[in-house]
Design goal:
Layout (H helix, E strand, L loop, with lengths): L1 E6 L5 E5 L3 H11 L7 E6 L35 H8 L12 H17 L5 E5 L2 E6 L6 E5 L4 E4 L1 E4 L18 E2 L17 E4 L3 H13 L5 E5 L28 H14 L4 H8 L3 H7 L2 H19 L4 H12 L3 E5 L1 E7 L5 E7 L2 E7 L1 E4 L11 H8 L19 E3 L5 E7 L5 H4 L5 H20 L3 E6 L1
Length: 465
């Protein structure tokens, strides 16, 4: 075999690893641009192109956690989602919290309509990417898949979304433990009225409690977390700070940041919803001003309190949760799971440590509802990139390290010119990066960077006999 170098007249190929919102929004923004654009190969291990795992639920009681006015998939067109719902014959306003299955349909349609505008530019592939190798002469990448095949690409976008929940520190007996509740069909195994314990009390728990209680009217759901805090509910449209936000000067400590936040809320008449929404676009800048030591303190002492105020739930979901608690069908415990062992019959005995000691719960099922893991080591593919030196963990081990434009940094801290990421993998860099508005803005910027490849086809290396 010999290397033959030839000029390729074909458009460059961008491989996008992922099939959810991050991948869809990158593809849509790129395909909707004017002028030459590269070809796209979307590779999703679940075959859920467009919808992804987050929006492939079929439970109509799972609602978006943001108002429709904020959920357009197209940067610069805030009414795009509502225009789509009207075209579907669905009456909705910007204040509505739409069902997640409906939003999944919207994302799928956005991908389809964007692809139709560029015939032949989008290919969808169902497959699991195991590794990423630098191409010949360090040009492009080779993606190796679990089925033994490989794909070559000029550039790669890691649009992998949220990772599965991290492993819990104990090993519950199978089969009554569900490690990833968002895996398709994961909850189908829970087919009796036995109590269920969910580890975690955040957004994942809310959806699980609503689904599990709806399937079995007599079922009791327990939820346990260190703080025992539940997400707050959205109020009517919040009032933003009248005088606008004046960000603290650099540098600053965590103590100074918290004092500034308290004063800003006080200056807004105590209305914190508006402050939280107003500060949200500035979180990456504020996060970047903190020292690593203060970031660690934030994660340990403040993060959970920020999350329950920042990641709020629709009024309808909040009302359902309150009703379940009032009926005794949802019981929230503040503490830690210390041990799990086989109980009487087919159940589990779970010891929960609290400030006052410990108690035991007899349940039939245990679910890891702690939410997405943050460290790349928990994901085999991302972990392989770190091991190979192609990437390195982000600050404090969260996600991947990248430059401000999403170019992934290698083990030495050098940003690649042809390997990018967006959304949840940037949590260590940006902290707030998991919601549609943030991902949409990142996708639009990244699309411009990728479009430049469409104007400058690479010299490709081909292997020939």
């Amino acid at each position: 075999m010999a290397d033959h170098v030839a000029d390729s007249a074909a458009e460059p190929l961008i491989a996008v690893v992922g099939g959810g919102a991050s991948a869809t929004l990158v593809a849509a923004h790129l395909l909707r641009r004017t002028g030459p654009v590269p070809r796209l190969l979307l590779i999703d291990g679940r075959g859920l192109h467009g919808r992804g795992q987050a929006y492939s639920t079929d439970d109509p009681n799972h609602l978006l956690n943001a108002r429709a006015a904020n959920m357009s998939g197209v940067e610069g067109d805030p009414g795009h989602l509502l225009d789509w719902t009207r075209a579907q014959g669905i009456e909705a306003s910007g204040e509505d919290f739409l069902p997640r299955p409906l939003y999944g349909r919207y994302l799928r349609d956005l991908l389809d309509t964007s692809a139709r505008a560029r015939p032949g530019h989008l290919t969808e592939l169902t497959g699991t990417v195991l590794s990423l190798d630098a191409g010949p002469a360090a040009k492009g990448w080779t993606l190796r898949l679990a089925d033994g095949t490989s794909r070559a690409a000029d550039a790669v976008v890691l649009a992998v979304g949220n990772q599965a929940p991290g492993r819990l520190p104990w090993a519950p007996p199978a089969p009554r433990y569900i490690a990833d509740p968002w895996r398709r069909g994961a909850l189908d195994a829970i087919d009796d009225d036995a109590p269920v314990l969910i580890v975690g009390t955040g957004l994942t728990m809310v959806d699980l409690a609503i689904s599990l209680s709806g399937r079995r009217p007599g079922r009791v759901v327990h939820a346990v977390s260190r703080h025992g805090l539940l997400p707050r509910a959205h109020h009517p449209p919040p009032r933003p700070p009248e005088a606008g936000l004046v960000l603290p000067a650099e540098p600053m400590t965590l103590r100074e940041l918290l004092r500034w936040a308290r004063l800003a809320v006080r200056g807004n008449g105590g209305e914190w919803h508006g402050f939280v929404d107003a500060v949200r676009p500035h979180v990456p800048a504020l996060w970047g001003r903190l020292s690593d030591a203060d970031r660690r303190r934030f994660l340990g002492l403040v993060a959970r309190h920020w999350e329950v105020h920042r990641h709020r739930i629709p009024p309808a979901s909040a009302a359902r949760i309150e009703a379940l608690r009032a009926e005794g069908r949802l019981r929230v415990h503040r503490g830690r799971v210390e041990d799990v062992r086989a109980g009487a019959g087919h159940g589990l005995t779970v010891r929960v440590g609290t400030e006052g000691g410990a108690s035991e719960l007899e349940v039939g099922w245990l679910i890891n509802g702690t939410g997405p893991a943050g460290a790349p080591a928990t994901d085999p593919f991302l972990s392989s990139l770190v091991t190979a030196g192609v990437a390195r963990p982000g600050p404090l081990g969260l996600g991947l390290d990248a430059d401000p434009g999403g170019a992934v940094r290698d083990a030495a801290g050098r940003p690649h010119g042809d390997l990018f990421t967006l959304g949840p993998p940037l949590r260590g860099v940006r902290y707030e990066t998991t919601a549609i508005p943030e991902i949409r803005a990142q996708a639009a910027v990244l699309a411009g960077r990728l479009a430049a490849l469409g104007r400058s086809p690479r010299r490709q290396v081909e292997r020939v006999p």
